């Protein structure tokens, strides 16, 4: 017997006057009947979900309830396209129904309808596959335990707790892949109408201020996304409520956006952005150029049609349509010092593996740089564009070329192209490398590793001073003397020192590893 046949033994308090297991049909009549003809049930902590996909997983259904509190039981009737979800409290169930009444949830791109069940409790101990259901419940509820008290207080007080406004402050940790304003909008707009976004870097951290139309939207977004990673092992969101009550956006560009005003200038002398937003007060649908992220995550939580999905077990977020970052992996880097043009690729290698570099024949201060993939190219642009090097401000953008061609032997510009595809300096050739979790913007503080025991503080200070840098501070790691931090006089000095000394031979078969640090001394 499957669970469909055992429905009557899986629930309690079942009146004989109402059929609570009518299967959904493919035409519109069932939907109309659901919305209009059925008399509504009184609130219950057991919720009935209609029109769930046949291939839905337990985790996907459970995760619909997680933002509202602990889920205590689940019964899926796949042949009837229905499920019963039991919440820990009636208050949590009421919050869930109220929220999804105005924001229809989607599972696998299919709308799901939620109403109170006539049942007050699910009894599923004797049903098949319950061990798997209980394992999913235990895993997915683990991170929600701290939120239960907040959820109950929220529902009981009928309002927000002190300090919970409509503006969120978001810190993105381990920023290995670029997180654009469009990506932020796509993720956070699944919880409500986003009015304004401001991005900036402070204390070597990428930070965001994001304002919702309704404080409740901010509450649910924080509850669902805090601690989640946009991509595997990186771009982790740390979310708090901001003390600000309103954001003042002066420019509409790639750093800030006011979605309520299309007349704002871009801040660089360009005309205002073209209105790409179709706005209806109360709801807001914005069409951005699609941004594809990194694939390979199994989505667990779906909030809306075409929505960003998150995995409660892996803590990852997937941007829909993600099939690898499309586009170009070749950078055009300009305003280089012609006398020092090739070494700059080492600083680019902090943000991805450089395969080829070509100095332009007629314009020696410009170069083409081919990265391992388009994601690394975008990351290098986001961190190196505008950075000072050898007295000049670097400019980095995507090239119109898709690859850097190696010259044929005897060509006039043969010496201007170099192949680094097999370089031992590559930092990211191993998938899952810890280097993916330690990618930071250029900073005056450098992280040093692979230091042999015989090398002293003075040895390293003198080494970095030999590059023309002013050493401001130095300290070894207490738990690991193979690593240290060194703080130089400026970010430009640090970039120069990294180029000069990364992979420097320290003896004893140790080559110094240098990267930018998010810490200060």
Automatic annotation (TrEMBL):
Gene3D superfamilies: 3.30.70.330
Keywords: Acetylation, mRNA processing, mRNA splicing, Phosphoprotein, Repeat, RNA-binding
Keyword RNA-binding assigned: yes
Polar residues bias spans: 9-27
Repeat keyword on record: yes
A single BP term in Gene Ontology: mRNA processing
Protein origin, superkingdom: Eukaryota
MF annotations from Gene Ontology: RNA binding
GO (cellular component) term, any one: nucleus
Ranges where the record places region Disordered: 1-44
Signal peptide: none
Residue ranges of every copy of the RRM domain listed in the record: 45-119, 168-244, 329-401, 444-519
PANTHER family from the UniProt entry: MATRIN 3/NUCLEAR PROTEIN 220-RELATED
Name of protein: PTBP3 protein
Organism per entry: Lophotis ruficrista
